[in-house]
Amino acid sequence: MTKVELCEVEVVDREAVERVQASQAPEEELDHLAATFQMLASPTRLRMVEALAGGELCVCDLAAVVGVSASAVSHHLRQLRQMRIVRFRKAGRMAYYRLDDEHISELFGTGLEHVRE
Amino acid sequence: MTKVELCEVEVVDREAVERVQASQAPEEELDHLAATFQMLASPTRLRMVEALAGGELCVCDLAAVVGVSASAVSHHLRQLRQMRIVRFRKAGRMAYYRLDDEHISELFGTGLEHVRE
DNA sequence: TGAACATATGAAGGAGTATTCATATGTCAA
DNA sequence: TTGACATATGAATACTCCTTCATATGTTCA
Fold it and tell me: In terms of Cα–Cα distance, which of A93, A17, A40 is closest to B39?
């Protein structure tokens, strides 16, 4: 029996451990949530989110705001789309992006409050 | 003049770009915010945060809840401490951790709402 | 004091990520 | 229809991160 197994078995407060374990969200939900926060874990993408909080923008203008290439922005936008952080509408050859819902700006705002305090 | 420079200069909606750029948070704040979200971008740390949302726990019990070694948990806790996601009190050789403030569970809750909808 | 223990930390390997470059797709305008 | 353009995407490289293993620190108890 290794030390690791001991540590998992000989908990200090077994009741608390079991209670907390029982209330944990399902694994796929936590994976999804982690992937969502991962999208907000990049200064470039945060700039994009902050920019879109002010209204929709096309890819080119978004690239200008955050100061990276349109290619890089497009790669980021695909990820943000996949995690439903942003959605977009096509208008001819342009694509206008906006935040998906109010949860996103709420996350941004709460996070900013936290780092500012 | 390269294509990238063109794309940065020839924006579609110059006024929008300048307005949005002017309202962007300072760089060090966005870096800090990105690092904060990074802390929430791991299923293991999210489990830890969710566990601590139910009250304080010692390192060993936290390791038991999330199912990783005490060493791994300790490494994570150090990062979470540095970003002020958690704080702790020492009691003899034990260390009891809790969430730093209500922003953290708010972020967790808002994020969970988003992925569940 | 010395052994056992809870926690902390340094180093390292393997996995994942961001950006760039090159190119593809689809749209507009001449 | 052809050329220019906005956006999208695949591949590759450089970079960062998570976990494990080994070890250190500090505390309790015999």
Answer: A40
